[in-house]
Write a structure and sequence with these properties.
The chain has 183 residues and is α+β, with helices and mostly antiparallel strands. The protein has 4 helices and 11 strands. Helices cover 16% and strands 27% of the residues. The structure holds FE2/S2 (inorganic) cluster (FES).
Amino acid sequence: VAEPQVEGGDDGVRRRDFINIAAVSAAGFGGVAVLYPLISQMAPSADVLAESSTEVDVSAIEPGQAIKAIFRKQPLFVRRLTDKEIAEANAVNISSLRDPQTLAERTKEGHQDLLVTMGVCTHLGCVPLGAAEGENKGEFGGYFCPCHGSHYDTAARIRKGPAPLNLQVPEYEFTSDTVITVG
Ligand code: FES
């Protein structure tokens, strides 16, 4: 269980998420499990890691706030956009983008305010800074990567700098009104 960091809001407000390393399916690995009963005591293999998922309670993320969680050992950003940020993201001429995607394509239907992305710059893998972080020098209101100066907008789309692609939106779904399951 990891306590995600809260940015852009009341430091006293604690969030909780649940890191679930998916158990290896007995059905899928039954034969192997019989032959190698010690496998469960070993460090998670790449295959197990690839099957892992992360649950994040998004209920307490206020507009303008983001939380950081961990998904498959990498940073995960979950940000609640303000109405202004949504408007900014939707006002962009999509054809002008390096990696053209609308905000709607990067969010779930009916949840355009909740942006879920990997916190991994698509240039060389640094962790970008969020808009609320003091050192953020981003020009487009979203994330800024301090390593070589990539700027991402409020939909976490690359707008300037060397990164070739938008911050990746991982596979996820709402498993309740307030919880998303990533992976
Ligand atoms: Fe982010 Fe190079 S790693 S700009």
